[in-house]
Amino acid sequence: MTGVFETYTEEAGQTFYYCRLRDAEYQLISEDDQ
């Protein structure tokens, strides 16, 4: 999986911390693990 890991905060009476993976892409390499 690749993408851009971002963190940010929002103030709404208290502080909220968030993280997200932007522009996420994945590639299935092997189906043997399923």
Give a verbal description of the structure.
By secondary structure, the chain is an all-beta fold. It is 0% helix and 62% strand. It contains no helices and 2 strands. A two-stranded antiparallel ribbon has the order 1-2. The radius of gyration is 16 Å and the shape is elongated.
How large, in whole angstroms, is the Cα Rg?
Answer: 16 Å
Encode the helix/strand succession as letters.
Answer: EE
Q: Strands of the largest sheet, in order across it?
A: 1-2
Number of helices: 0
Task: Tell me the helix content.
Answer: under 10%
Mean pLDDT, to the nearest integer, reads 90
Structure characteristics:
elongated, mainly beta, 34 residues, two-stranded antiparallel sheet
Please write out the topology.
Blueprint: E1 2-11, E2 15-25
Antiparallel strand pairs: 1-2
Brief overview:
This protein is mainly beta. It has no helices and two strands.
